[in-house]
Amino acid sequence: MAIRMRGVHALARLAGGASLAILATASAYAQDAAAAPEDDAIIVTGIRASLEQAADIKREASQVMDVITAEDVGKLPDANVAEALQRVTGVQITRVFGEGQSVSVRGLQQVRVEVDGRTLLGWSARLSPPENDQLGRSSGLDSVPSSLFGRLEVRKSPLASNAEGGLGGTVNLVTPKPLSFKEPTISLRAQGVYSENSDKFEPAITGFATTKFADGRIGVMLAGEYQKRTSTTQTFERNNFLNRNYTAGGTTTVQQTPVLLQYEQFTVDRSRLGLNGAIQFEVTPEFTITADALYSKLKTGRRQDFFAFRLPTGTNPVTGAVVDDGMVVAGNTNGTVTTAGQIRNEPTESFLYGLNGKYQGDNGLTIEADGYYSKGTIDQTIQIITLQGTAAVPGAFDFRDQTVPSLTLGGTFDPTDYASYNPATNGVRSNRLLGLLEEWTGKLDVSYETGGGVTIAAGVRYTDLHARSNAFRSQVTPTRDEIEPYLKLVDAGDFLTDMPGTFPRSFLSTAPTFDYVFNRAQGAEPNPDPNGRSTLLPNLQRDYDFSEKTLAGYLMVSGEGEIAGIPYKANAGVRIASTRLSVDSYVNVGAVSTLVTDKNRYTNVLPSANIAFNISDDFLIRVSGSQTMQRASIADLAPSTFFNATNLSVTGGNVNLEPPIATQADISFEYYTGKSSLISGALFYKDVKNFIANFVTTGVDLNLDDQGRELTFSRPENLASAKIKGFEIGIQQFLDFLPSPLDGFGVIANYTYSDAEDNAGFPLVAVSKNSYNLVGLYEKGPFSARLAYNYRDEAVFEFSQGRPSFVGSRSQLDAQVGLDLTKNIALSLQAQNLMPKKSATSEYSNFNTTALNSYALSERRFSVGVRAKF
Fold it and tell me: Which SUPFAM superfamilies does the annotation name (predicted)?
């Protein structure tokens, strides 16, 4: 009896740079998924089918690549794209508000994000960024719902035909296309999501529909998803350990001392809407036109309360100091108390419109033209009302043997009494950031397969990228009468209830409103914008208008043959990219701002080669070598010079930054032990030049300071080189050899070791040396289950005063259960973040876990859903 899955083996090669060839492969799977089975066939669906499809694509790929495929239409294994990708060997993710947001690949966080080979632009929320920290070159992976995609690809080695821009790799999100389905298909899913601490049950609704007309030559597809989630994040925030002077007996020593103890609680309200549609027209059997569009809107709103105790900065800031491994971790001091309530909203939108035409003739000639427009917008507003203590407050702190440091206040200060706060130092502050990213791209690819099986491919790609940032801010001091209606008492029973320890849990905070902060407290300020864009004052040191034009071309040759009787498939090519950029920004000296224009241009030559040896039908060895690049972030390229005449400092970006270049080599092994089973391993090496980091220098600039004083300059520079080397191993295996029902069990396990250091011997930012995944599976008949555990160890997140600060090790446990009630209707249960304290994000200074800088705890969430497909 033949065993058959709902899908076919991938036949497309990733040669010639034809991005729609990848889509055609995905289409072939979806088409066969709707086909009627043979009379003696057993249909393999669900988890096993998706693993078999992924293995087929990996086996046939022309580069080093890992793949996750949907179990069915609109049904990836995780609701969040980043969280699905964390199961891939060599991928590590960053979480914000308990959700996966961005990824690093084999030790580098500079990763390009594409949809169907096109740039997806947009923003993602951060926990506590500066106003324009989010401006980048591609969207965060939390900005679009995962149900819009049928496949996620992680390309670890490039082809010459792939767009440049991913130093660590490229994540390509593949959407289904309507002509791939043999029959009309409708899929609907409704879920309720419960967040534990927020105590809310909220909806997630997904829909998909596709059909064909005109004898199957015209296809239409529409997909959409809406999600809403309210979550609670409990944090200790914004501390750092900095050098402070201690003088006793005529001797001065320097100790690393905490700066700020701030206890915060966020309530985050996120709603996500995603729409995806496509129309395809098969003009002739050889020529197809596709028009498609993707829209995503992510609204992130948060309300937070915090209690802050700031240590003094002068000599002898702490008495009775306890020093642990060079860090002051306990003692007594007189600090400044600040409490505040804040509202922060950051609605973002992403748009992607594309038109594609592809001709694939019987004579070996393929021509593909593709054009698209990508856009991302943000309108971020921040409203905060702060209260500050009337005088320095005695306090005893202790960082030892606790989740977060303890803080005991002394003296007569009562944090719940408004009389303890000084109206003259209270403040109302508001910020607004209006951001735009947009890109126009057109490309043409031509390939010809000769009679000898050799394919010659060439193409050209032109990109016009534009980014604009307009920032506004204002701060006023309200009267006592103005602020009193907006006071609120934070109750001890509602604040950081999952964090043990002694610290102020009940205090007076504020409840700002948009109407009060923007219209009343600051309504008297002059409107700086004649078009009424904002009533706030311009924050010109964060403003810029950026333009970048890129012309890239490639030539690639691919083919297959034998060496010593061993079959192989290979490709080799070169990509040349010429980049021109221009930035309008401001030089800010005191109250005077001068608009200036800076320009730069550079050209990069990027060779690549991949070869795969079929040692046997089931055993492959891949070898690849290439150079990849990553253009500097837009915010780093914008000079936006700000001169502070008080402390004689100069900060800003640097338009002359060169793109970091990675020279990399890979050798990987793939042993396919069954249709859905695979054992794999890889060795990888990257040598990166021109890493970008902030650099501090001193000098004189008479254009900024006509007195000729020595200034301190802080700007990003191409400072470092780095080497990343490591290995990865993985296994994907169903236990088919066991008797029923035990043959439904399966396992996915992988481990990655990445050793990454710069030329000074420091570890690279965001790189965990060890990471692994363990996934237990069961699928038999109508029942399926999955238990997934993910782990990564500590990683550097920044350097302060030459010392590294680390993110601690983290792990997460998730579970899923599914039951097919009928052929068309299924139930599902999911539980995420089952061990919140293990997944909490902790940051600490200089290898000392006691020296805590921040701690963020997210909650468990559960969902139940029903799905129907016709």
Answer: Porins (SSF56935)
